[in-house]
Design a protein that fits this description.
Order of helices and strands: EEEEEEE
CATH architecture: Sandwich
Subcellular location: Membrane
Structural class: mainly beta
Largest sheet: 4 strands, antiparallel
Protein name: Ig-like domain-containing protein
InterPro entries: Ig-like_dom, Ig-like_dom_sf, Ig-like_fold, Ig_sub, Ig_V-set, TRG_var/const_region
Keywords: Immunoglobulin domain, Membrane, Receptor, Transmembrane, Transmembrane helix
CATH class: Mainly Beta
Shape: globular
Organism: Poecilia latipinna (sailfin molly)
Helix content: under 10%
CATH superfamily: Immunoglobulins
Length: 107
């Protein structure tokens, strides 16, 4: 059965310069696997931004052009993606997923 993570808001509205956080619940179901955050703009495919390991370590190996604008936090059941200084170019929907491929595992 597929892991079902819970996201209340995929898109939030903020003014330029403000901060915003997207939450992802149920990450305890990911076990020792990393949570990957993706950006989806209307006219583009999903782009991986970063991943955060089960012990809370954030890695940015995906060469996303805005990767330095994002940070992530993770505890036992939840994960969040934060943009500290929102820019117009951040307009998108944001999704989380367990990386069950194991390529970003702490196991």
């Amino acid at each position: 059965m597929a892991t079902q993570l819970v996201q209340d808001d995929l898109t939030l509205t903020r003014r330029s310069g403000q901060s915003v956080s997207f939450s992802c619940g149920g990450t305890d179901q990911c076990g020792g696997y990393a949570v990957v955050w993706y950006q989806k703009k209307d006219t583009e495919t999903f782009r991986a931004i970063l991943y955060i390991t089960s012990n809370g370590r954030t890695q940015k190996p995906f060469n996303h052009p805005q990767q330095d604008d994002f940070s992530a936090d993770r505890n036992q059941n939840n994960c969040s993606l934060t943009i500290e200084n929102v820019k117009k170019d951040h307009s998108a929907s944001y999704y989380c997923s367990c990386d069950k491929s194991g390529s970003h595992s702490e196991k």
